[in-house]
# Entry
Amino acid sequence: MKTVITNYTFNTDAKTITFSDFNTTNVAVDLKRLYLITDVTTNTILYNFADYTVSAATVAGATITLSQLPSNANSSDSLNIVYEALPTDPVPLQVLESRTDGSSTANTFYVGEAPVGSSESSAVWRIAAIIISGNSTSYKYANNGYFASVWSNRTSLTYN
# Structure
């Protein structure tokens, strides 16, 4: 289940993020399950599993090391870290909540997910449009699938 890691240490000098709840002797961070790291203070994507031009990452135990950071990144910045959690992973992890809407636009269903408690007017949602045309169904994302959209604006967003 996709979760948002809320307990971490961000060190810009070392370009590292350490998951504080992960015991390095029992549970290690799995890079294959790391989806996205966004600096919400500067609204900058620090890591995206599907785009290595943003930054590459390596893992040692509970610490992720990024190959690069933007010059305006600060260790005190707030991060949004999306990770695929397993039942064996440590807690606390924050589960994502979801929304669906199949009535706003004909032949289109919207699916959104964001950290639990997020306002529908905050730009923290990943929103997909599922478009049905005859026997064909297509899936498209707003903002390239990043957690950077506003659920309340789902019908007016551009989907690619």
